[in-house]
Amino acid sequence: MTGATGGIGRVIVFRLAGAGWDVIAGARDREKARALEADAAGLGLALRTVQLDVACEQSCREALEEAAEMTGGGPWALVNNAGIPQAGALADVDDARARHLLEVNLLGPARLCRLVLPGMAARGGGRIVNISSGLGRVPWPMGAWYSAGKHALSALTHCLRVEAAHLGVRVCLVEPGAFATPMLGRALTDLDTVGDPGNPGYGATTRLFASVDRRVPGPEPVARTVEACLTARRPRPRYVVGRDARLLVPLHTLLPLAWTDRLKHAATGLPRTSTPAPTGTPPGPRLGEPSGRAKERA
Ligand SMILES: NC(=O)c1ccc[n+]([C@@H]2O[C@H](COP(=O)([O-])OP(=O)(O)OC[C@H]3O[C@@H](n4cnc5c(N)ncnc54)[C@H](OP(=O)(O)O)[C@@H]3O)[C@@H](O)[C@H]2O)c1
User: Fold this and answer.
1) Residue 22 located in a structural domain
2) 287 pLDDT above the threshold of 60
3) pTM of the predicted model, to two decimals?
């Protein structure tokens, strides 16, 4: 189980340990791992941890080797839960931030799937649960990289489900709506960090996230769903969790894009038409035309 020190991950590992599962919780920070073990022990739960940074290939290999030693073979199930937000307009998020998001939210989970599959196949089966997001199906402006990473995780999960079926490995995708965890706070910090004060999307999105953060439920429904993925004889390929996601996902599939674009303009405060330049402002170059300086150089 990756990302066990966070909001949803912590609730999942405590729930599974409470139900008698032999849980190996991945944590990238040793201090947090020790605190998690102590909290579990305080609740009378047995829970073991391994150090795991999903963005680092070597860490993934070492964590799985350690888990194999602990379990005498390897895990029966993998829950890819670790994830980070990356809020901000596409125009403001640089390559380094985008690459890190893809490392954590996409390449890390994909790598772990690849590394656990041979062991699962050798034991005749297993389960993989990938935690995506409702925003993996509803691309959300001012959070394009997060949506893109989760869309890609979704695609990868659907392919893996078919590819791993003959190995006896069942693969599920969980798509939560908004739940109360530190993640929304992290997204608000992103908006502050990359924000362009001239872009009205930042103010409106900050207000939207802050108001969602005040009203969202705790993450127990996600933990219940993950347990269902692990215990059901025939788990469903995908589980949409939370009222908001159960409303938004089908709505986004059914409505024409022009309508959903309108809704997104309204929610993010991003104008639908360009604002005319103040009178007296010299017109800038059009896309594809050389700028004034380029003309001078020519
Ligand atoms: N909360 C929501 O509303 C929501 C909605 C839809 C989907 N989700 C998804 O649910 C999952 C859990 O989110 P959350 O809300 O619980 O977030 P969170 O509270 O911010 O926790 C994220 C967890 O991921 C871990 N993590 C981050 N980078 C990592 C890395 N490189 N290697 C290993 N672990 C790493 C964090 O570890 P540290 O403690 O060391 O930072 C933390 O344990 C994510 O995949 C997220 O996209 C959340």
Assistant:
1) no
2) no
3) 0.92
Q: How far is the CA of 81 from the centre of ligand 1 (A)?
A: 6
Taken in order 112, 114, 116, 117, is the CA torsion positive or negative?
Answer: positive
Q: Does residue 183 lie within any of the structural domains? A: yes
pLDDT in the model for residue 297: 42
Q: What is the CA radius of gyration of the chain?
A: 22
Expressed as residue numbers, the domain containing 241 is: 74-273
Tell me whether residue 5 is in a domain: no
Q: Using a 6 Å CB cutoff, which residues line ligand 1?
A: 2-3, 5-9, 28-29, 32, 52-55, 81-84, 104, 131, 133, 176, 178-179, 181-183, 186
Does a structural domain hold residue 204?
yes
- The mean of the pLDDT values for the chain is 93
In the structure encoding, which two tokens stand for residue 122, read together? 């050798």
In this predicted structure, what is the pLDDT of residue 281?
57
Which ligand 1 atom minimizes the distance to the CA of 9? 16
Phi, psi angles (nearest 5°) of residue 224: -60, -40
Is the pLDDT score of 298 beyond 70?
Answer: no
Residues involved in catalysis: 146
For residue range 182-227, list pLDDT tens digits in order.
999 999 999 999 988 889 999 999 999 999 989 999 999 999 999 9
The CATH number of residue 189's host domain is: 3.40.50.720
Please tell me the total number of residues recorded for the chain in this structure.
298
Q: Which of 10, 28, 79, 208 to mutate to test the pocket of ligand 1 (most atoms within 8 A of CB)?
A: 28
Q: Are 78 and 112 in contact (CB under 8 A)?
A: yes
